[in-house]
Amino acid sequence: MDQLSSLLRQFSISAGVFYSGQLCGLSDVATGDELVGHIHVLRSGSLSIQSKQQLLNVVAPSLIFFPQPQAHRLIVDEQQPAELVCATIRYDNANHSALANALPEQIVLSLSQHAQFARTIELLFSEAFETDQGSLVIMDKLVEVLVTLLLRHSINQQNKHSGLIAGLLHPKLSLALAALHKQTAFEHSVEWLAEQAAMSRTSFIESFKQTIGCSPGDYLVEWKINQAKQLLKLGKPITWVASEVGYQSVSGFTRAFRANTNMSPKQWLDERSSSN
């Protein structure tokens, strides 16, 4: 399995479309304590996006993605409505996401220069202006496809990256990440990961921190907890899940899970069930 597919199996994302159609005037997009991103797909018209940092003017069909929380205002000329779809992007961990942290504060792509998004966006707007059954769910899934395409594009660009994407592009760290992602149930050690990268323990730890932004141990825990969440979603027993992701005891797994999510595995499952 390729690295991006493996990542998205564990660090899952979900989209929720909150606006589709013609927009005119002002619309504020607020953020709270939860780690969320926002994506706007402009098909026609022009759009200005005001944030604390800057005023972004978009005058051609474009894809605008804020991977991390950033309050902003959409401004459209009342005489010339813009046609767009807006969605919230949620990460599996509401407090921290290696994927969100790996991306720049904003991504703006002109659709005329990136044909790989065209088919998905055509389907998205087709559903946006239909009133058929299930259209909102289909739109949510299509936005998730767009985010995946954005991640693929970011990796393929081979430009200057930070965080997890930089790790995937690193000639040595990528070897350790690939080995880790394939063998989550294995009881990894920093020494073992350094061996996979053909680096000394000290060089590996320093390079990992500088490139990805966290220690190998912290990354390993987050990866295991995210895999555990996917297994818990499937209804697997907590005892089995703990063993499957490399913990020798349920108590050790529960401590790590609580440290990562601020709740026990059972509490996390109960909260997820109530929200669904």
Automatic annotation (TrEMBL):
PANTHER family: ARAC FAMILY TRANSCRIPTIONAL REGULATOR (PTHR46796:SF7), HTH-TYPE TRANSCRIPTIONAL ACTIVATOR RHAS-RELATED (PTHR46796). This is Transcriptional regulator. It holds the Pfam family Cupin_6. Keywords: DNA-binding, Transcription, Transcription regulation. It comes from Agarivorans albus MKT 106. InterPro entries: AraC_lig, AraC_XylS_family_regulators, Homeodomain-like_sf, HTH_AraC, HTH_AraC-typ_CS. It comes from the Bacteria. GO terms for molecular function: DNA-binding transcription factor activity; sequence-specific DNA binding. Residues 174-271 form the HTH araC/xylS-type domain.
